[in-house]
Every structure is written in C-alpha cells, then in structure tokens.
Write a structure and sequence with these properties.
Layout: H1 8-12, H2 17-28, H3 33-43, H4 47-56, E1 68-73, E2 81-82, E3 85-86, H5 87-95, E4 108-113, E5 125-127, E6 130-132, H6 137-148, E7 167-169, H7 182-190, H8 192-202, H9 214-223, E8 230-235, H10 244-251, H11 253-267, E9 271-276, H12 284-296, E10 313-318, H13 328-335, E11 359-363, H14 364-376, H15 378-382, E12 392-399, E13 405-410, H16 415-421, E14 427-432, E15 438-441, E16 459-464, H17 469-483, H18 489-506, H19 512-528, H20 532-536, H21 539-547, H22 549-553, H23 567-570, H24 572-578
Parallel strand pairs: 1-4, 7-13, 8-9, 8-11, 9-10, 12-16
Antiparallel strand pairs: 1-5, 2-3, 5-6, 12-13, 14-15, 14-16
Amino acid sequence: MKNQSWPHSLIFDKQHLLHRLYTLQQQDRHISAETIVRVAGEFNLPVSQVASVVDFYSFFYRKPVGRYHMLLSNCTSCGYQAGKTDLLKMLCRSLNVDPGVTRADGLVSISETSCIGMCDHGASMLINGIPLVGLDETKVTRIAGLVEQQLTLCQWPQDWFQITRSIRQSGMLLNNTGSSGNSLTKALSAGPGRTLDMIEHSGLRGRGGAGFSAGKKWRLCREATGDAHYVVCNADEGEPGTFKDRVLLQCHAGALFEGMTICALVIGARKGYLYLRGEYRYLLAHLQEALELHYSNNLLGCSILGHAGFDFDIEIVVGAGAYICGEESALIESLEGKPGVPRIRPPFPVTHGYLGQPTAVNNVETFIAAAYIVTHGSDNFRMAGTEQSTGSKILSVSGDCRNPGIYEYAFGVSIQEILDDCGADNVQAVQIGGPAGTLVAHRDFRRRISFEGVSTGGSFLVFGENRDLLTVNQNFARFFAHESCGFCTPCRVGTRLMEGSLQKIVDGRAVAADIEEIKRLSSLIMRYSHCGLGHTAANHMLDSLRQFPGLFEKRIMQQAFSPQIDLEAALETARQITHRDDADAHLD
C-alpha cells in the first residue's frame, strides 16, 4: 500500500533553530549580533538563549570565515601530521594565512577541528563542510593553487572527495541485506508486546559503549506516562577513531529507519528524530532520499503498511560541532534548541526526555541490530557472542595498520585476532573505545571485546612501536580540554590543568611530584565532574601511567621543583614590544 501524501515538509522544510542558524551563516559566512536578534524573534526565544547556542557550537562563527573554509582534523588517525610534516602549517604558509584568522581578502580561512570520522582515509579535512581525504604535501600544494585560482569545489579533482566504505569484514549486521520493510512487517504481525519480548530475550545491549539493555530501556519508556513518547537516534559519534556510523548511514539507512519505527511501535511513539553530527552534514541528502523512499513505500507516515492508527514520522536534525552532544541528555538539550549541556540525572530520558516526555535514545548500530533481531529472531542473535554480550560488534579500526576500516565480529573476539586481521605488526598498544576508553598494552592482547571484558563503542586505535604515546596522550588531553562544555569547574578547569601538566612532561620540565599531582587531579576530575566526559577524561593518562610508567620517568627532571610557567620565555613578548634585549630585560 502506497502513502501518496507523505509530508515532504517534515523532511525538507521543517524549521529547527540549528538549521536556521546554519542557513543564515551560509549566506553571510558568520552569525552577527543582528542575526541573533532576528532569529530570536522568529523563534520567540530570548536573545540570550540564541546567543548561547551560537557560542556553544564550534561550527557557528561570530566573525566571517573565508569563502574557502578549511578545518583540518587533528585526530591521531586522520590528523594533519603527515610523517614529520605539519600539513596545517604548510597550507597556512602556502596561502599566507594565520590559523584561525580569515585572510584579509575574505577568500580563505584555515583552522583545526576534532576527529571528522575519516580515520580510514588518512589525513583529512572539511572544506566548506565537505570531507577531502588523503592529504599529503603534494595535495596541499595543489589545494593552495586551486584556492588562489578561486575555482569552485566542483572544478577540483573529484577523486579527492571520494569516501570509500572500507568494509573489511562483515558479520550478521553488515551482511543483512533483507528487503525493505521485512522487519517492520514482522513486528506488526507480532504486535508491540511480543516484539518487545523478542528484543529483551535477544540480550541486545546498547552499542554506544555503556551497554544498557535495549529491551529494558524500551520497556521503561513504554510504561512511562506522558503526553507523547519519542524515539531518538544518536548519530553523533564523535569519539576520535570512530567512523562506523558513517558507513552504516551510507549503507544501511533503511535498516536504521526500520529499527526506529519498530521502537516507535513498541513504546507508542508518533515522532522520531535522527540527530546527525555536524561533521556528517554531507550525508544529509542521502539520508533524506532514504526517508523519502520509506514514506513513498508507506514504511513511515500515516497508517504504516495499512495498520490504522500506527503513525510515525522521522525528522533529521543536524548538530553543529559538539562532542558532548553524544551524551544522550546533552543531545536532547540540543534537539530542544539549547546548548548541549548534559542534564542532572535522574530523572532519565526514558521518563523525562525530549520536551520532558518519555524518550528512547539509542545509537545507529543498536537500531539496526533491533531490526535484524525482529527479522531473524532472538535465538539467531544469541547464537553469536557471549552469554553477557550477545550478537556482534562493529569496530572502526585505524592507526598503525595496513588495512584500516570497518570490521564486524561476534562479541568475544580477542584483540590479537583483530590486529592480525587488520595487518598490524609490532604493536605496542591499542586504545579501545577512544580517548575515554581503555589503553591495552601488548601483554594483554589476549583480552576480548565484550561488555564483561574490554567494552567499546567502536573505536579501535592501533599504535605501533614507533608511535610516541606521550604525544598521543597530549592529543587526547587537548581534545578533552577543547570539548568540555564548560558547565562544571572540575571538568572545565581540570582538563586544562591536565593538558598543561602533560605539556610540562613532554617538554622535559616535570619532576616526580608532578606525576603525583596528575594522579590527584585525575581523581578530582573523575569524581566531581558533572557528566561522563569529565568522568572519563583522565582514563588515557591513568592507563598510560599504569601500563607504560617508563614513558614518563625518562622525561622527569632530577630537581625537586620545576615551575609550571617558563618566566624567561614569558618575557619574550615584552622584549619584542619594547625592542629591548639588554641584560635588564632578562631574568639572569
């Protein structure tokens, strides 16, 4: 049965604060104070709220950016360090522009950003929001020339923008190419109650890393009272080294939308949201086409598949650059048109989520797994994995290996098996679950991926024996300091202090007492931070100190005290301003 009147406006014309701000920024290349006042009037919001939203998200700009706006990823896998060459500095020199400052003629601006999910494609950037991959010295030189010629991006070599799927090993989910609507048909036949029983019996746990039972979450939401119930898909994977959702959104959008619709059937929702990370905006047209197909096939909309009263719509909301919005309550705040500051919990989203109503939030992989379970049965799903971790896990493998990409394994696979499959030799450590996860040294490569073993949301970063793990930790510390939402003092200040302390070690200015101070600081951040970002921000440092103490010890000075600030270096600016370099302008 076809739905001939599916709501195009729901997908294409729906106004959301983030979308409106993005549209206006595209016109003016920034968001002015006048624009903020104008938008506040349009949405009947306080000017202060709109201003706080603009200032919160890293992809909104108060000052004009260039017509060619480049953001180079600073991730350990897709970052701008190509061997010993700093590609960001090279590009800035080639175009005569300072990082973070728009060139005087308004043509170009260059800066860096956190991981853009291109870790299987080498050094990468976003240029006007479009990913450009495989950066090297030759390509950077050519890019500078094309910018100076002011050629449009469609006139650039198009193979630079080709994003391959890099699926290296498929399992039950990636191999599932069932006909569109099959799982939803079976769910409707079984009914909401039996479908929920199937999800619970399967043992499906959320694939975002925390591993909460999907069936239990859906049941709690179903039983919660409210004026409306909502389904939210968290497609804001921002953990450095994670890119599996990018591939799933490219290849399995249909299964994702069916999984969300099955959840709607179970919990009694009529509206769902796909929250797409800002770095993946280029996927929006593809996802809208997939939605349109679902509406035209009556898999969404009114009286889905002819079942009167079963109405469900999905809207896509695109974020604007904020890692913290991967936390479900922060994501909900963003959906509501506010800065993505995590909420105090309880209450939890299952009872008080979007607009204060019961809301089921799961990530892309979880909804796709739910659709698979309904199609193939819970017993089939339980046959894979372990007793406590049923089914499979999709991993984003990158770093020092010959074959980076997407790998799907049944839970229980050892770390060494994954390293063998991806062509990783002479590995000293693997960071599993991103900077917030677990650092595993060579002696522990027999450990297994599972919720009861080494848990992960999907990131699997390989570090060879030639990789400087202190530099890696420095990258992670800078990431957390940058991505802290700033709401609470322990995280806002603590992550900056952690970054500074690590810099002191890297520079060879630290003493033994500094190591103990890092441990004390880590404990404070983990214990008193408002949300999960702060609770996990020190994991990488503590793991490194425990697993590789020699890395730090060899950088320690013998003196009992070393100042945090190099006063002699700090006076250099004053010497330059006063044009003095005599003895009295130095401390010695």
